[in-house]
Structures
1.
Amino acid sequence: MLNSLTTSFISRLRSRDEGAWYELWETFGPVLRAQLAKWGRGRIGPETVRDLSQETLAALSDSIDRYDPTRGARFSTWLLAIAKHTLGDEIDRRSAQKRGGNRKGASLEESWMVASDGPPVDSAYEAAVFRAKVEAAIRLVERSSDFTDFSIFRMRVLDGRSGKDVAADVGVSEPTVSRRLAKVRDALRSRLEEVIATYSFTPEERDEAARNGLGANPTKADDAMFDEAIADIYRRQVELRQTDEARLAGD
Amino acid sequence: MGLSISGLLIAAVVGIIALVLLIIGLIYLIVPTFKGIGWLFRQVFNFIAGEVGDAFRVIGALLTALVLVPVVVGNVLIGRWSASAHFGRAVKSEVVAMGRGCYRMLVGHPARLLCITPLTDGFEKRLPEVFAAAPGADKPKGRQRKFEGYTIVGSLPGGGSGARLHVAEPDERTLASLARRGVTDVDQVVIKSFSLDDGSSLPQIVRESRSLDAARRLGLILEHELTDERFYYVMRYVPGDSLTLVTQRLHATSPSDGLGSAELGAAISYARDLVATLRKYHDGGLWHKDVKPDNIIVAGGRAHLVDFGLITPLRSAMTLTTHGTEYFRDPEMVRMALKGVKVHEVDGQRFDVYAAGAVIYSVLENSFPAHGGLSQLSRKCPEALRWIVRRAMTDYDKRYASAGDMLADLDALAAAKDPFKVRPAELPSMSGAEDPMPATPPPFAPDPEVVRVSERLHDPIPAPPTPNAPQTPEAPKRRSRGRGPGSIRLTDWWTGRYAVNADAPVPGPAAPGHTPPAPDRPSRHHRPAHVRPVDQRLPASEQLASARGRAAEMRKRAGERRRDAGKRVRRGRQHASGMNAGVVVPVLMVVGAIGLFGAISVFLPAFSSTSVSVTRSGPEVVIEGRRLAPASINAEDFTVTALELPEGSVTEPVMRTMIVLADGVAHNDDALAVSVEDYRARGLAVVGEVGTDLDEYTEGALARLRAAIGVAPFESEDARDAITQWVRDAGFAGAVAWFQRDASEPTTVRAWILHVDGVEQRVDEPQPLMIDSAGGHMFLAPHAAPPIPPSMPDVPFAKGAA
């Protein structure tokens, strides 16, 4: 059963809230582009990847009204199925054009709504979707935190600098750095829970954070692990964005 | 026994370990080997598949083009021009596809097979980019591309707005007009033109023209025109390179881990220029909205912000749009635009501040901030600068409230001896130091240059964009923009005489919140009406004379303005539309190549000679020359080049003499006889061992020649040197032909000819038999190698084989 956050988000999508669609695009656009580029390698160029990722969201927009949350699809599978369909449609269209025939593109099936019994989809893709959720949470924390507090978190956790250096740069004591860091960390844990809940359709998806060392109720010893996990995810997301940027730039 | 068992056990264990290690080692060796083999197969397979696929594509494109060509011609013949143009485009695309296919077959796939793609990257990537970004024609044609008062001298690459950018020089009349308005030092201008004919759309034209009024307030626009068909405006030309290009250069001269100290200083300086310009815009109530490296021109060490296409008044009532450039546009702005927020409901300054942060990021990283505000600054840079960039690109509510705040931080950084030692805590925005630039902009006070321009543009500078700004006490006393018609006072009831009181000001409506300053002089359209009473008017003749005098005075002043404009010192041609090294060198190379070719054609007529074919029957002569490979030539298909002498050539009859040496070849041998006949038919005097009587002098000379050759074998270096020396010494022979029967192939006769240039007395290399004479001079055609028939055997020709 969907939680209230997810239901609310789906409702926003259904009511054609452009902000919700932009949020979806901003958060998962690079992941979709990476997956489409992987599938279509050698057959579609970067421009087509960009177009297809937009078409994926357009297709999602068309099908959102028919979405049935009781049928058990994962959020990531939901996105992926739409993307796969969009890509397949494009490939079919191209093949039809090459042959000169009048074959129409495949119609959108709703099989993605059903929980699959087969092996999980590409684990790299699943990990990328999870990282995108974490990144969205970091962005939300940046918005809600004080700039200096978030800068301390950024320098200490994302840049990996020592507490002493950070304290000297910001002009505060080391205990203050630790205190402010803890404040942002707590906010991030809370946001993470919220974001993962929003973009998760199944209980199994909602447990991803705990499985990845980002649980909501950690001990003191877990803080270091949490920071490390966040830093690692951030670095991977930066790499993904850079790859995406290079792909779009045609490199 | 126990020892032996334990020894066996140890040996077994060691053996097993060794075996395991061996297997692991083999796996480590075999796996990469098989991977390598697999890669090799894949490469070859891809190559073959690519070649075959492209071959079919080329053939398909060729066939399609062949089908389309008659269609194009047919449409032209029946006058269906549009259809013919349509099919013509299709032919063009097929030809392009064919060319691409050929390129891939000949270059692309082989390069990929050999892993030398970096070699072809220039053709496949950089070249198309360069061509795509190339400016248009320097002298655009067509009525739509002429601009009265300006001479187009070049063009710039257009941006994404569909506009055409021309570089132009104002003529003297325009210069005088600009000078009258206080705009001086304008050597060249940029004309941004939107035309429906050029593909611009009406929304683009409307958007650009809407921003015009705002830009004009800052003196950014010199002139503009809007007609039914086009819209254009004129602005100053800022020569230089875009910040994108400058950034690449900065990184090219810096270490790989970040900008060097000099480059970092330049980067901070550009950042300051940019933010200072933005502050000026914001103080003027404007929002640039399209700040990005491509819109920043670096010239003379300063960064100039250009392109006013998206400039928007900060207090505009328009709905916010998502226009801008990705990576340099705040995502928050997109969210707000999607919500339908109005421009005046947001703080546009903060979006420009975000873009400025993104620009600084791109300069430091030589890349786009693909991660938005979370983009990582991975290269070495001062922590304080990193802080400034993050502060500029952070969330909308938390970033610098104004460009002035950001500029204060940048100033602090620039003032430091070592930017790396500046800590973020020491920046003005962090330390709480008094901001030298007040966050709240003062009442609009543009720089004097802007004021001067704006005053002359009949556009009074507006007051600060605060709707409820109180009126200054002086305001009511100031003259209004418009004046009333003046009051009429009747002076004589009986005669109807009246007087006009033109000095009485009639207050006009003032824009709310605006305090228009008193103009220095009334504009032409609103000049006070100086109407004299009838009784005070001068006679008509005097009025006419006075009018003529005024007209003459005006003409004189106009002439002076034009002369002044002409006398002013030009700062040199700024737009590089003329010659530069990149243009001159290739042009000179082409001209040089043409000249060289022409000279060779003139001085070496062999290149332009006509060919005559000499077909001989009977026994053939195998002619050999050092430059021929294979060494055997079938004389049956031999082509002799008829040469044309250049005019004025020195002609010496003696040089027409050919000396013939014959070793083992009888004078009546067919090979020798036919050749001698051939030489004589060409006007040469053939003497030597050809069966004719020799005079004493010639006989002595031949004896000396034979003595010089001695026993040197045929075509040896020694023989050649000896003959060369003899020819020089003798001074009367044009060439020596040495015939010899091949010892290993008795049926074969070889000939070797050594030629002397009669004009320069230069001994040439031994040449193949390309011989003729003209004007008393004998020539060899050194470059006209005879065609070798495909069936030509590699062995010397056997006599009678043909």
Note: The CA atoms of residues 30 and 244 of chain A lie 6 Å apart.
2.
Amino acid sequence: MSEQDYLKDISEIKNLMNKSSRFISLSGWAGIFAGVYALIGAAVAYYIVMSSGRDYLILDGYVFRLILLDLALIAILSVGTAIFITTRRAKSDGVKFWDETTRKLLMSFLVPLVTGGIYILIILKQQKYGQTGALMLIFYGLALVNAAKHTFSNIKYLGYIEIALGLICALYPGYGFWLWVVGFGVMHIIYGAMMLANEKKQ
Amino acid sequence: MGIIENINKVFDHRIRLGIMSILMVNDEADFNRLKELLEVTDGNLASHIKALEKEAYILIEKQFIGKKPNTRYSATKLGKAAFKKHINALEQLIMNKGLK
């Protein structure tokens, strides 16, 4: 074997290790869109609460239900856009969208996230809503850190930042809204833009 | 030092090298998953799996999912150690040649 063959072997090994264990068809655009939806959703929520006559949110049926709908729309639009962009990219890269790697990625992402979501609903039922923003940030951050081993590993840094913001939010619940805006809006746009810059480089 | 001695003849083939690469980073993989990733035919893959099994580098586990037979493969400790040694040897060879 020549030097060229050894080099080819090494790159083949690396390629297969990545292909078989990491899902890499995610695009920075998915992050940017998620961030933009979050910012728009936050502005809508701000407007709803302000025009309700109070400057804080309570569980008084109507306004609260509007906010929940707003949150659900943000989540559905973000996930929908991510799936759309990702399947398109996977197709153009010639890789399968649904395989063992995608399954592992989704499972490791969803277990902390769904746990957090159910937990938040339970404590909302018990009228404890001061920590909602903090819990959303913390569980989302944990989900990202957990999923990082099955996709771009740098996504864990986004997860650490979300967890840190969540803990700050737990200490200062009064700033919950703004920390949520930073965590779900601004951070997604920054991370998405960094990913895009990386994609362009390659 | 015999770097050449550390180059493992068993891994001197694209498909066997590929199978081991996949099993190094995944706890286990089934036949179809390997086939899909390596883009090879059934017969070709089966013969290389047999070669690796003979060296006790991989473990074969047969089971049934419903009525369908399902075979799962995983790397043994021996296989992982042998593969690491092989990669180190490859890297050393490349580095040594680069210096000259």
Note: Helices of chain A lie at 3-21, 28-50, 62-93, 100-125, 132-147, 155-171, 176-201.
